[in-house]
Structures are given as C-alpha cells and as structure tokens.
From TrEMBL:
It comes from Levilactobacillus lanxiensis. ATP binds at residues 111-117. Belongs to the MurCDEF family. MurE subfamily. One of its GO terms (molecular function) is UDP-N-acetylmuramoylalanyl-D-glutamate-2,6-diaminopimelate ligase activity. The gene is murE. This is UDP-N-acetylmuramyl-tripeptide synthetase.
Length: 505
C-alpha cells in the first residue's frame, strides 16, 4: 500500500491532519490494528477503548515502520495523524485489500431482530441461483468460499473493518459474486463499515436494545446508527409494519430515489409487497405476495412456502425475496430457498410423541420474545405455552422487565433459569423477572441449573403443549464470570431429556 495513496484517500474524506514521514513515496508491506499481527515494514493502526502505547511498542518490535493514530505517541517511528482513526482504518483496509466491494453485490441487513434469519434465507436463495458464488457474514457463521476452511464461526455480528474487507478480498479471490451480511448498529457506531456502499440495504425492525455501557447511549443514537444503512445503500428495503417507519423512510429518501426504495408488510396495500399469510403450522408456513406500483416486480406476486415457522419469519422471508430478486434471483430460486432453509437455533423444533412440540429459539429480548410467544398464542390458542428462560447478566437489564411482560401476555408456565449470567447471580436475575410476573396468569419456578429447568419443562409437558427453550439457540456455552463455560446446548439437552423418557421410546 502506497503512503501517498493512503494520504490522498484520507484527505478526500477530510481525515488527514499531518505526518512525520520524511517522504510519502513509501510502500507499506502490511497493515495491522493488532500488535500481535504486525509485521515487517508495516503500518500499525492505534485504536480502541483499551488501547495502550505498549501495543504500539510491540508492533514496532514486530516490524511496524509507521503508525496511524489520532495522537503522537512520540515513539521511534513516524506517524500519520488523523482526526478519526476508526474511519481511517476502514479506508486504509479498503485500499490495502484493493476495494473488494467493487467486485461483489453487497446485501446488508439491519434490524433489532431477524438479521441472522434473513441473512440465511437470502444466502440459501442466492446459492440456488448462483451456486458457489455467495459469501455470507452472519452472527453465527462466515462463508467466504467453497472449501471447508472457508467456513468459520463469527466473533462479532459485523467484523472490524480490517477483517471485513480482508474477508471480502478472500471471497472475491474465491470467485464469489454476492455477499449477504448482517450490519449491527455497532458497525456504524464504531465505523466498521465506513465508506462502504451497499447494493441493497434492508431495515427489518427496531425496538429498544443495545443501550448501555459500551453500546449506544440512548435509543435515538441506536436508531440513528441503524438508519445509516439506508443512507449508504443504492436500493433500500423497509418493513412498513415497523415502529419509526416514517423516520427510516425519510432517511432512505436522503440518498435514494423513491423508485429504488421498496417496502413490505402484512396486508399493507400501499407497500411494494403486501403479505397475506395463508397457512401457519407448528413447523412451517405459507404466504402470498401482491405487488403494488412496481411493474418490474410483478413476477413476485405468487405464493411461498417457508421452512421456518412464525409470522415474523414470513416478514423476514419477504425481505429476503425482495433483496434476492434485486440481486438477480428468479422466482423459482426464491421459492426453493425459502422452502429449504434451517437456521441454527432459530425456531428449531422437536416433535415428541407425548410431550408436545419443543422450540429452540434465540429470542433474548422483549421484541423477539413477544413476537415468538404472540405468534404461538394467536395461532394455537388451545395449546398450553411453557417457557424456559433466563436473562443475561452485565447487560440489557431492561430485558428482564420485557420478558416478564411477554410471559404475562402469552405464557402459562415459566421455568426461570440461567442465561449467560456474567458477573451477576443467576438466581437474583430470575427473581427480578419473577417479581414482575402476574402469578394469577403464569405459574413460575426458579431452577438455576438450565439442564434441570429443561428437564422439568419437557417432563411435565403433555400432548398439546408448546415448550419454548428461549435465549441461547445452539450456544454451547454459558458466559459466567468472564469465561465461556461449556454447556451442552439447548437442543442437545432437550434430545437427551426426550431419550430418557420411557413414554418416548
Ligand atoms: C465495545 C466494542 O464494540 N468493542 C469492540 C472494538 O474494541 P476497541 O476498538 O475498543 O478495541 P479494544 O478491544 O478496546 O482493544 C484496543 C486495541 O488494542 C489492540 N491490541 C490489543 C491487545 C494486544 O496485545 N495488542 C493490540 O494491539 C486491539 O487490536 C484493539 O485494536 O473493536 C474490537 C475489534 O477491533 C471488538 O472486538 C470489540 O468488540 C467487543 C469484544 C464486543 O463485545 N463488542 C460488542 C458490543 C459488539 O460489537 N456487538 C455487536 C452486536 C450487536 C448486535 O447484536 O446487534 C457486533 O457487531 O458483534
Ligand atoms: N422479524 C422479526 N421480528 C421479531 N422477532 C424476530 C424476527 N425475526 C426473528 N425474530 C426473533 O428473534 C430471534 C433472533 O432472530 P435472529 O437471530 O434472526 O435476529 P438477529 O437480528 O440476528 O438477532 P441478534 O442481533 O440478537 O443476534 C429469533 O429467534 C426470533 O425469536
């Protein structure tokens, strides 16, 4: 990477302040923001809440010959000073990796809920349309090519800019043409996607979440960060049913012509796509779409079968239909992809012989718990709903009140247990939820050991019961006192319980 090219790019974005480089006619052999990955003749980027000058010294010891920072650390190598190092890192990464986004059709999903689900649905549709040409960056998994080593677990919902553009480069080099990715609000808060224009940006929904220390200072900031996806997308797709729709639509209109803004919603005749749910079972559903005011989308007006249950998943599926169609998928690809997708830990179900249907679902805040329980309650009013859940420690304290509210509205029985307690006492968290439960409506028990809570819930369930194991999806750990403590995972525990029940054999 040429220093003069980087400086020109930083100047273009009004980020460059000054440099102590004797000449900008130099080449950096590498770029790193982690001292442990710095190498000979490299440029090291100093950023982060926990940054220490010791990291810069280690990077120099590992071969860094220049650093990029917001302040002069007065070390032995020259500095490029900028007024915003996170934005500078994103631009430097794009330059270093040769702007890989220019060779990809990039689809980005934001929303409080449904990002992972919609990302999987879209990836499956597009993989049917363009086999081995689709990259995916989800909270669960990343796929950057066809080989087994091109699939790996995610560390964050949206990776740090350097890692993001690195993986995009690898995906392009592996022949990928499309990228489907999740865009967390944190990605805009910390400029992980600064300078990236999405071909399609989708805004699924918003409800208060991720507000607190290390996250957003308030809801307005959370919404503002999420809306940046609309401002940075060539085509915008927005759920017309969501709260704050008008503000999000207005944000989209700032940089996108109205004919490139698409909306969808349930029985919304004015939306581009109006959804009519035709059948919903415990394990899947079918819906129809009608098209309004967009002749080029008329082919989408047909029926679709979705292999994941829940009306909210019909909504996610419609977003996936629109985004995939804009990327070039045919209706047959849309129908195939939606009918053949499972998402790890999202509405996975186990049908038992005598203990009802068990759902393993990642719902871990009011928005998702409310969507999940209200769907089950509305569709299957005669079924008894049992929920097994806890609430995370060290963050999202308001989730506890939200869970109690959703349980009061829709559940019959709740087993309150452990879910990533962090440095807090899981029993105290459970009691906090319990204190806000209306015990005339919901019968509760506090069972700290999650395995035991699942055991009690399934064993006591009868034929028509719906047992929801909420919050952990397929997580195979409990976050306790800063350590990821191994945990078998909800599906494994549930299968073990069922295998041990005499009447299930
Ligand atoms: C608050 C927050 O978001 N922090 C993220 C941010 O950290 P940071 O830039 O402040 O860096 P830091 O961790 O303080 O470390 C300081 C710097 O020293 C460097 N370092 C560190 C050690 C060393 O030996 N040498 C060295 O050079 C590090 O590489 C880093 O650049 O950037 C890091 C990557 O560069 C992330 O790992 C880190 O995410 C933390 C772990 C995190 O948990 N973030 C959560 C809140 C998050 O981002 N969540 C969203 C999901 C939200 C949703 O569900 O929608 C996500 O996208 O995952
Ligand atoms: N469109 C939706 N509206 C409301 N709830 C939803 C929606 N889609 C999914 N959910 C619920 O939210 C849970 C999490 O879904 P998913 O993992 O797809 O969302 P996400 O946005 O990636 O979440 P997170 O940011 O917490 O990782 C699901 O298990 C389901 O209970």
């Amino acid at each position: 990477m040429r220093a003069n090219q980087l400086i020109a790019l930083l100047q273009e974005h009004n980020l460059f302040l000054s440099t102590t480089l004797p000449s900008d006619d130099v080449d950096f052999a590498s770029l790193a923001y982690d001292s442990r990955k710095a190498s000979a003749n490299g440029l090291f980027v100093c950023k982060g809440f926990n940054f220490s000058v010791d990291y810069l010294q280690s990077a120099i010891a590992n071969g860094a010959t220049c650093y990029l920072a917001e302040k002069d650390y007065h070390v032995d190598v020259p500095v490029i000073l900028v007024n915003d190092v996170r934005k500078a890192l994103s631009l430097a990464a794009q330059l270093y990796f040769g702007f890989p986004q220019n060779d990809l059709f990039v689809i980005g999903y934001t929303g409080t809920k449904g990002k992972t689900t919609s990302t999987y649905l879209t990836t499956n549709i597009l993989s049917h349309a363009f086999p081995q040409r689709v990259a995916m960056f989800s909270t669960i998994n990343h796929i950057i090519g066809p080989k087994p080593e091109d699939q790996f677990k995610a560390h964050l919902t949206t990776a740090e800019s350097f890692d993001l553009f690195h993986e995009m480069r690898q995906a392009v080099d592996n022949g990928d043409k499309v990228l489907v990715m999740e865009v967390a609000s944190q990605a805009y808060l910390l400029d992980r996607v600064y300078g990236l224009t999405f071909d399609v940006g989708i805004f699924l929904n918003i409800s208060p979440d991720h507000i607190g220390v290390n996250e957003h200072p308030n809801f307005a900031n959370y919404l503002f960060c999420k809306m940046q996806l609309m401002i940075n997308s060539r085509n915008c797709i927005i759920d017309a049913d969501m709260d704050h729709f008008d503000e999000v639509y207005a944000a989209a209109k700032v940089s996108t012509a109205p004919e490139r803004i698409f909306t969808y919603g349930f029985n919304q005749p004015d939306a581009t796509l109006s959804i009519t749910s035709s059948t919903a079972t415990l394990t899947d559903s079918e819906f129809g779409l009608t098209v309004h005011g967009a002749d080029q989308l008329q082919a989408l007006a047909t029926t679709y079968h979705v292999s994941v249950p829940g009306d909210f998943n019909q909504s996610n599926a419609t977003a996936a239909v629109l985004a995939s169609h804009l990327a070039g998928a045919a209706v047959s690809d849309l129908q195939y992809g939606l009918a053949h997708t499972t998402i790890p830990g999202r509405m996975e179900s186990i049908t038992t012989k005598h203990h009802g249907t068990i759902y393993i679902d990642y719902a871990h805040d009011w928005g998702s718990m409310n969507a999940l329980l209200s769907f089950l309650h509305t569709q299957f009013p005669d079924h008894h709903i049992t929920a097994v859940l806890g609430s995370t420690g060290d963050k999202g304290e308001d989730r506890r009140e939200g869970f109690a509210k959703a349980l009061n509205d829709y559940a019959d029985t709740a087993f309150l247990t452990t879910d990533d307690p962090g440095h807090e006492d899981p029993i105290a968290i459970a009691k906090e939820i319990d204190s806000q439960i209306d015990h005339d409506k919901v019968k509760t028990s506090i069972i700290p050991q999650r395995e035991d809570a699942i055991q009690h819930a399934i064993t006591s369930a009868t034929n028509d019961d719906l047992v929801v194991l909420a919050g952990k999806g397929e997580d195979a750990y409990q976050k306790i006192n800063g350590v990821d403590t191994p945990y078998a995972s909800d599906p494994v525990v549930a299968e073990d319980v069922i295998a041990g029940l005499a009447d299930e054999q």
